[in-house]
Design goal:
5-stranded antiparallel sheet; alpha+beta; Beta-Lactamase; 490 residues; 18 helices; 6-stranded antiparallel sheet; 35% helix
């Protein structure tokens, strides 16, 4: 609250109209002064100094209830300056009293007062008749701060307790010696122990049978809370396994923070821990699944790809990176693929992807050429399908496999070329066979001449040459050679 401007002693505006002590009614009789050990009566200047020392609002009124004095505390508390307050009816700034005075003649009540700026402040108002003059002496003190502080403390404690009790994370407070002095219900649930069983137990207790993530023993003096107590340094995200009384192994992620750490060791430590047993098991299942998938794909010589359509990002397995000769396993944009595709094969792949996304075809199945680093081309077989859709049924992820079929395509080309050659040979053979001899031939039993359809008898060799593409050559068989020459051939 801003303080009002200071005023000099005996300033009429500070004390009010008329500054004589007798007019104010605060002069104390000599007998009273003597009784209190005072050297002189309390006068105007004394009241001025006293009102400056009191943080509360102090005011006096005349017989008509109008303000005659207005202290600096009143300016600070209610915002009305002395010039604005003096002369106004007190009821305009402070509510009238409806309560009866006590035996000392003091009336007290609490009320919300309206400040000059429109704000409201909860106050306690005390009033007593002035001595030796008409009017009252009024003291107004703020109680908002006290009530608000008390309410804030209560609310904070309630909120802390509700959060402490409802947290899914376990919380334990350990003293400087490492003993647990407090815990929440989640700690009881995760550790399988009641509050009574936990309180007093230390980290070095062998019943924890704590282990590291790799299964090796986790000595109690190296637990996060004990490290924090020894060093004063916080520990975060430490994974450890503890055995519950029923023999089960619980995996927890632990944070520990020192309490009251100064130059010396911490007075205590607060450790929070989250049960990550199920998450660890699921992660292990995922790792095993990925491991088996990689083994399967490596065995089939296929690389796999996974494209996030929303983020426009593609993941390639290591084998897919090698097959496509890409520079990285995470490709930010689809342009990285299209620039490596053979221009003649790009339309087919785009059509297959678009049809799959539109639901017109179930799968992507395209053979295409990808540019090699040596400027050549590699044939690959790209397969895939929509792997995930959003709540509205729109595709958000494609996944599939890619195979190196370059050698197969080369062999296919060789086979097709050989087949084309064989087709020509078969055609020529069919032509030759069409001219081949067929049916019965009339051959003379003595001279072996063959009769033509017109009745002419011609030598056998001439008949063969006339009716086929074969050429006849002449020689002598061993038997004839021996009969005619008289000796067997060499």
């Amino acid at each position: 609250m801003m303080r009002g401007p200071g005023r000099r002693r005996n300033d009429p505006g500070q004390i009010g109209a008329g500054s004589e002590a007798n007019e104010i009614g605060f002069q104390i009789t000599s007998s009273s002064a003597d009784a209190w050990g005072m050297d002189r009566p309390l006068g105007t200047d004394d009241f001025t100094q006293l009102s400056r020392l009191v943080d509360a609002a102090v005011a006096t009124t005349d017989g008509d209830g109008r303000i005659t004095t207005w202290s600096p505390g009143a300016v600070r508390l209610l915002g009305w300056s002395t010039d604005e307050a003096v002369g106004r009816a007190l009821r305009d700034l402070v509510p009238c009293f409806d309560t009866d005075a006590d035996t000392d003649g003091v009336r007290t009540f609490r009320s919300d007062l309206v400040r000059r700026d429109g704000g409201r402040v909860r106050c306690e108002v005390r009033s007593t008749p002035r001595s030796g003059a008409a009017g009252d002496l009024v003291v107004v003190t703020e109680i908002d701060a006290e009530d608000a502080l008390r309410a804030a403390v209560l609310e904070g404690e309630t909120r802390y307790r509700s959060v402490f009790e409802s947290m899914s994370e376990g919380v334990v407070v350990q003293s400087q010696g490492g003993a647990i002095v407090s815990c929440n219900p989640a700690a009881e649930r995760i550790l399988g122990l009641t509050r009574d069983q936990l309180e007093g137990r230390t980290s070095i207790d062998p019943r924890w049978r704590a282990v590291h993530a790799d299964g090796s023993p986790y000595p109690g003096e190296t637990h996060p809370a004990m490290v924090t107590l020894a060093t004063g340094r916080s520990q975060y995200g430490v994974t450890m396994g503890v055995h519950t009384p029923d023999g089960r192994l619980r995996w927890i992620a632990v944070n520990s923070v020192p309490v009251g750490a100064g130059r010396g060791p911490p007075a205590a430590v607060v450790a929070t821990f989250l049960d990550v047993t199920e998450a660890r098991m699921q992660a292990e299942v995922v790792r095993d699944t990925v491991r088996r998938l990689n083994l399967l794909l490596d065995a089939t010589s296929d690389g796999y790809w996974d494209r996030d359509l929303v983020a426009d990002r593609t993941y390639l397995s290591p084998l897919a990176v090698r097959i496509l000769e890409m520079d990285e396993s995470n490709v930010e944009s689809n342009t990285a693929f299209t620039t490596k595709l053979h221009p003649d094969d790009l339309p087919a792949l785009r059509e297959a992807v678009a049809g799959c996304l539109a639901g017109q075809r179930e799968r992507i199945d395209v053979e295409a050429r990808f540019r090699r680093r040596d400027a050549g081309w590699r044939w690959v077989h790209v397969r895939g399908k929509v792997a995930e859709r959003d709540a509205q049924g729109r595709p958000v992820r494609l996944a599939g496999a890619v195979s190196d079929i370059d050698e197969r395509q080369r062999l296919r080309g060789d086979l097709e070329a050989a087949l084309a050659t064989n087709v020509g040979l078969v055609a020529r053979l069919e032509t030759a066979l069409g001219k081949a001899l067929s049916g019965y031939l009339p051959v003379c039993a003595w001279c072996k001449a063959v009769r033509e359809t017109d009745g002419e008898w011609i030598p056998l060799d001439r008949y063969v040459e006339r009716h086929s593409e074969a050429l006849v050559t002449h020689g002598m068989c061993p038997r004839c050679y021996e009969r005619e020459i008289g000796e067997p051939p060499d």
